[in-house]
Amino acid sequence: KNQVEQSPQSLIILEGKNCTLQCNYTVSPFSNLRWYKQDTGRGPVSLTIMTFSENTKSNGRYTATLDADTKQSSLHITASQLSDSASYICVVSAKGSTLGRLYFGRGTQLTVWP
Amino acid sequence: GAGVSQSPRYKVAKRGQDVALRCDPISGHVSLFWYQQALGQGPEFLTYFQNEAQLDKSGLPSDRFFAERPEGSVSTLKIQRTQQEDSAVYLCASSTGIAIGNTIYFGEGSWLTVV
Q1: Which parts of chain B have pLDDT scores under 70?
Q2: Which of A54, A97, A101, A108 is the best substitution to test chain B (most B C-beta atoms within 10 A)?
């Protein structure tokens, strides 16, 4: 069964600190992996997209890594800000599937305290 | 418009009532998707359109759910005889095409509560 598991479920950090969120998936055959940020009451916003051949991709203070062999990805947030408080969702798609048939994790709820 | 627009933002429906949720994708986006997001869960795929063609509707949970996009732009998700388990956020998303690297842009969602 195609699944996406994220950890931790929730995380609280102090402003300015770094953190790393984890994503493990069993989606096969793998096509690409995306990280989204979802603010409460808003739609998800894309942070990064990585295909099989990409190991790391950065978007400002966000850096995503991908190990397609172990089927793991991480999202590293540097120098956190209060506005980083949100749910971070790992999304994986399979080769040959409809583009929109994405497999979503449940998300990691990040809270940044001042 | 600048982003994916959904309406209504909030809808309270009595059990058994029919509802219609509207999605205005980003202008020029040929691909449109509907997702259902229950409280505390990640979004679940419902259906996908390429222009006016509904290419995948395998995620629709029952025959009470129906989606259309007659002119290849605005889409409507209709839920007939709503039930309490239909309570969720319904997210619409659009993309320029089906290439793997295309970004999928999400709307703010329509929050449906069935009482």
Answers
A1: 1, 98-101
A2: A101
A89 CB neighbours in chain B (<8 A) are 42
Q: In a 10 Å sphere around its CB, with 0-12 CB exposed, 13-18 middle and 19+ buried, how is residue A40 labelled?
A: exposed
For A21-80, what is each residue's pLDDT tens digit? Answer: 999 999 888 888 999 999 988 888 999 989 888 899 999 999 999 999 999 999 999 999
A83 pLDDT more than 90: yes
- Closest in A51, A98, A107 to B42, CB measured: A107
Q: Are B37 and B91 in contact (CB under 8 A)?
A: yes
List, as ranges, residues 82-101 from B with C-beta within 8 Å of A: 91, 93, 95, 98, 100-101
